[in-house]
């Protein structure tokens, strides 16, 4: 059957209020999407289906304190702590990094693709990843790549909502998010992890921070192998040593060298819609970009592309050319801002 046939069946059974056939058709469409390599579409459908079933179970009159009522309350509370719930289209080709980083990520993915085999031999499965390094060096992008390669939903934690001034609430909020991740077998992504996992200073009274770190240690230990936690930080030295030891994989994403700067530029310009006004200037631009982050380099390039395209005469049918002098000036300004941070 074609995808359109499944959609027509879903519409038909939905209008007829035939729940059994509707669910069967939805599951068939999900299977069809997976076989057609439309993984993100399949994951989104699965998420909608799970949420709908959960909501359907809570409809109607419920006695106070019932399990359905509690589930509905938990869902409402957990959603406050999730900034975004997403699927990712990013794959390895999207990531510019060293071969050793790609190798580490590849092994991690292979473990999750072989969960049944590892469980058969009673072997542990790595499911806790820490990305660290300077700002703008791809920690968030690497997380999206993992989500895309693992074909899992990712819950992006809302730190502003998680962290509470009320005694003990931060730990409770974290526990709710991890329970959701365990139930949905998805990824929890925590950016600026050092905000939560700060070193416990026993010489001073920081009882709440110690409580949060202890909670994280327990949540990490009891996280099911089918779920994953990814943390990112610019300040790994601020994270408690016991928490650092809990991470199965710790990956340092560093500033790019000249070869990776060249790769980033080529990937950004791979569409071929624009070109440099002087190809010979590329080596000097690459040298000028050294010391900037991936994000900073790409931002200057995209800005140069936009300004060059806008300045390009609309009547001229030739390919727009990037003004390399403009780009070098943007790189110089970016370096000034980067060095002042």
Please give a handful of descriptors for the protein shown.
Rossmann fold; AAA+_ATPase; ATP binding; two-stranded parallel ribbon; 8 strands; 15 helices; ATPase_AAA_core; 6-stranded mixed β-sheet
Radius of gyration: 24 Å
What is the 3D shape? globular
Characterize the largest beta sheet: strand count, sense, and whether it forms a barrel: 6 strands, mixed
CATH-wise, what's the superfamily of the largest domain?
P-loop containing nucleotide triphosphate hydrolases
CATH topology of the largest domain: Rossmann fold
H and E string: HHHHEHHEHEHHEHEHEHEHHEH
Looking at the overall shape, the CATH architecture of the largest domain is 3-Layer(aba) Sandwich
Uncertain regions spanning at least 5 consecutive residues: 57-73
The total of beta strands comes to: 8
Oligomer: single chain
Helix % is 55-70%
Strand order of the largest sheet: 1-3-4-5-2-6
The amount of beta strand, in percent, is: 5-15%
Tell me what the structure shows:
The protein has 341 residues and is an alpha/beta fold. The chain folds into three domains: 3-67, no CATH class; 86-252, P-loop containing nucleotide triphosphate hydrolases (Rossmann fold); 258-340. The protein contains 15 helices and eight strands. The strands form two sheets. A six-stranded mixed β-sheet has the order 1-3-4-5-2-6, with helices on both faces. The chain has a two-stranded parallel sheet with strand order 7-8. Helix 2 (19-35) packs antiparallel against helix 3 and helix 4 (67-80) packs across helix 9. The longest helix has 19 residues, at 39-57. Residues 57-73 have low confidence and may be disordered.
